[in-house]
Design goal:
The chain is α/β, with parallel strands linked by helices. It contains twelve helices and 22 strands. The longest helix has 21 residues, at 578-598.
Length: 630
């Protein structure tokens, strides 16, 4: 790199003889050639991230495939789990703490295995094992969805009861006590538990086929969870009838639908829905109805509602049905325009069985391919190009929740004279959904085991909504203790609660081959740093020019561009200061770098913009760390 320090200024008067003029011109030209011998910029400097969509499944927090495990509490030690991956669902069978009831229903097993009317604290290790499991999830950076029920199978009558005049009747007080006891533990892991599915009654905790399947209990249970859980934790109910009851519209489906349509319904940003009949029929196996008539609302009304419920996860389980019934019952999967629209309207974020081998709906989705004819308005076809002609199962799997794609990128190749470098770009969320918790952005410099991290407080990734785009334009001060060499530059977006030196929740972008699993950050490019480019920051103000003094010369009033009036400095280099010559070099060097960039492959055509939404005007600093691997 050429020396950036301002040279001594020319202070001698040029002679007028032609011989001396020629000699001086030759010397100045040679000096300029030496100064302009700019370094050769390697092709791997600056922004190197591919702007192409990878078409790969990404393992990111709070979205995607969400495996689940049932844990049944009994007299023995309670199983401790070690969840991993971006999202995991844990369901607990609490029949050990219930005395059961005499409710029965055809095709379901009657109450069995209940352990008696008990507080959760009466078990020797259940609450401790729950804590240990949630701590394991925190350690692995896995988002958890919880469900509690008194039956993990096709059993009815396992919920608590008390003696009534006509036999057993609901005892909601014990259920409310269990919700309170569970919340006391769960709240200590508000950074790990994304949501709690309301559950608490019915087979598999699916909130049906139970003596508690009455409107008076729907809202009572959901409101108890909302009240007892930390405000960061979401609560999901099983179907629209439970939402209607929570919002005091029980028995008033038409009024509820009208409130949804008009936008007058005041939505709780923590309340959502899980759907365990997903895609199984035209009504998702009774989740919705053919009319807005209690206890149902139509699929179309539900889609409008879910579109507004964009701060909570939506998903669950694709229904277990036969191949014959799937088409006969009018599943939406056979209507591609409607399916594509609903996926984005509902903000689908997780499914337990999207990758399940042999699953009927997953198998059908494998046969159906994505057509570019039904890409939604506002979507860039290039953003989904790898999925055109591929299966809908893969498309749904990879676009549940958020999916981030860097669309434009530019990064300084070297440090500027003032000891700073800049990076600009554009990120699009091509996923069905939004970020559901607060996120934090960081830029990382890495060379070997040395890393420097800068927190970007001006970039609120939570604003990056589904099908939305955000621009960024950041300037960084290079640390004075940064060693010379090529430093890789990474962008990391992670959970705001992830404050350790080693990130567990950093989000993988959809761009090809950019994610570093160890850093959990995305490589944007490389910058070359030399000792001359690192500037110590001082509080001293710039020295002002003396009155009447031209900064380009040592003599008051002297014009550095010429010795005599009428002399044209453009014909030779007479009178140029070292700064003038360096400025000429800078201009040539910038042109060379621009020409080199213009010749890069189209995928690195970054289409830079001058005005960016997230240009904060500040200069970000770095903090030094020694890299620690997971």
């Amino acid at each position: 790199m050429y020396n950036t320090q301002k040279g001594k200024e020319v202070n001698m008067k040029l002679k007028k003889t032609n011989v001396l003029r020629l000699l001086t011109s030759t010397i100045l030209t040679m000096s300029t050639m030496v100064l302009c011998a700019a370094p050769v910029y390697a092709e791997n400097l600056g922004s190197t991230i591919s702007l192409e969509e990878s078409g790969m499944e990404l393992n990111n927090v709070e979205r995607g495939e969400c495996p689940y495990t049932w844990v049944t509490v009994n007299d023995g030690a309670t199983q401790v789990l070690y969840p991993s991956g971006g999202m995991y669902s844990i369901m607990y069978d609490l029949r050990y703490f219930s005395n059961g009831n005499d409710f029965t229903h055809n095709d379901y097993q009657s109450s069995t295995g209940c352990g008696g009317y008990k507080s959760l604290t009466e078990h020797p290790d259940f609450l401790d094992s729950l804590r240990e499991t949630l701590q394991n999830a925190r350690n692995s950076g896995t988002s958890i969805v919880l469900r509690f029920s008194y039956a993990s199978d096709k059993t009815t009558g396992n919920e608590p009861s008390k003696a009534g005049e006509k036999g057993a009747e609901p005892d909601v007080d014990l259920i409310l006590k269990h919700i309170s006891e569970l919340s006391n533990v769960i709240n200590d892991y508000k950074d790990t538990v994304l949501a709690v599915e309301c559950g608490m009654y019915g087979p598999w905790g699916e909130m049906h086929t139970s003596m508690y399947d009455e409107p008076e209990y729907y809202g009572q249970l959901s409101k108890a969870w909302i009240a007892d859980l930390d405000p960061n934790i979401k609560v999901l109910v099983r179907s629209p009838k439970h939402l209607m009851a929570h919002y005091d519209f029980a028995g008033k489906a038409e009024d509820f639908a009208a409130a949804v349509s008009s936008g007058s319904l005041k939505i709780d940003p923590r309340l959502g829905m899980y759907n365990d009949g997903y895609l199984g029929s035209s009504t998702d196996v009774g989740t919705f109805g053919d009319k807005n008539e209690w206890p149902y609302i139509t699929r179309e009304t539900a889609a409008d509602l879910l579109q507004r419920m964009d701060t909570v996860p939506y998903g669950g389980e694709m229904a277990y049905v036969t191949a014959a019934s799937l088409k006969a019952d009018g599943s939406i999967i056979y209507d591609e325009p409607a399916l594509m629209g609903e996926l984005y309207m509902s903000h689908l974020s997780y499914l337990h069985n999207i990758n399940e081998s042999g699953h009927v709906i997953a198998g059908e989705l494998d046969k159906l391919t994505v057509s570019e004819d039904f890409i939604l308005p506002g979507m860039d076809k290039s953003d989904v190009a790898p999925y055109i002609g591929k299966s809908y199962r893969e498309f749904i799997r990879d676009h549940m929740g958020y999916r981030l794609l860097v669309k434009e990128s530019d990064l300084s190749e070297t440090v500027d004279e003032d000891g700073t470098f800049s990076m600009t770009g554009k990120i699009t969320n091509t996923g069905f959904g939004n970020f559901l918790t607060d996120k934090k952005a960081e830029v990382i410099l890495k060379n070997g085991d040395d890393i420097f991290i800068s927190s970007i407080d001006s970039f609120n990734a939570k604003e990056l909504k589904s099908l939305g785009t955000m621009d960024y334009d950041w300037t960084f001060e290079v640390p004075t203790d940064l060693a010379s060499g090529d430093w890789d530059v990474y962008l990391r977006i992670k959970n705001a609660s992830d404050t350790g030196e080693v990130s567990k929740t950093g989000i993988s972008f959809a761009n090809k081959d950019c994610f570093d699993e160890d850093l959990r950050a995305n490589k944007i490019g490389t910058i070359s740093i030399s000792s001359e480019g690192v500037k110590e920051t001082t509080d001293e103000p710039d020295t002002p020019d003396q009155p009447g003094t031209d900064a380009s010369t040592d003599e008051p009033g002297a014009d550095a561009s010429t010795d005599e009036p009428g002399t044209d400095a453009s014909t030779d280099d007479q009178g140029k200061t070292d700064k003038d010559k360096k400025d000429s070099c800078d201009s040539k060097d910038k042109k060379d770098k621009k020409d080199k960039k213009d010749k890069k492959d189209d995928k690195h055509d970054h289409n830079k913009k001058k005005d960016h939404k997230h240009k904060s005007g500040k200069k970000y600093s770095f903090k030094h760390y020694k890299h620690k691997k997971h």
